[in-house]
């Protein structure tokens, strides 16, 4: 059983998948930092010093100073600011994956078309090219 497991893990596609998952997790962390630390602060500044992480709607009708205060009070909240950050994360990751797949598809070799079936043959007597269905050579009149 151990040998079968080692063969399974040593196959190229399993190792490729493992590397892809690790790279994807690292890339996701980079994009999350990009959105939270680079993209959203200027947008919040333009919209009047709004921090999107703290945007929420308390469902109990009370007013809270921050999202953390509402959660610590046990109030049910809709944290739509966090949801907006997550949507932007997704859109950036989806765009980068789209661009990556697009570039990889350009580099992949197109399959060569199958060679066309020959439509002519050479006459064994005069070596002239004649149609395959010919029964007699039109040049030397030999019987084929």
Write up this protein:
This protein has 144 residues and is mainly α. The protein folds into two domains: 2-108, Non-ribosomal Peptide Synthetase Peptidyl Carrier Protein, Chain A (Orthogonal Bundle), CATH 1.10.1200.120; 118-144. The chain is built from four helices and four strands. The chain has helices spanning 2-10, 12-46, 67-72, 80-107; strands at 57-58, 77-78, 120-122, 129-131. The strands form two sheets. It has a two-stranded antiparallel ribbon with strand order 1-2. The protein has a two-stranded antiparallel sheet with strand order 3-4. The protein is elongated, with a radius of gyration of 34 Å.
Overall geometry comes to elongated
The largest pleated sheet is described as: 2 strands, antiparallel
Beta-strand percentage? 5-15%
CATH homologous superfamily annotation of the largest domain: Large-conductance mechanosensitive channel, MscL, domain 1
Numbering strands along the chain, what is their spatial order in the largest sheet?
Answer: 1-2
Number of helices: 4
Count of β-strands: 4
- Total separate domains: 2
Distance between the termini: 65 Å
Uncertain residue segments: none
What is the CATH architecture descriptor of the largest domain?
Answer: Orthogonal Bundle
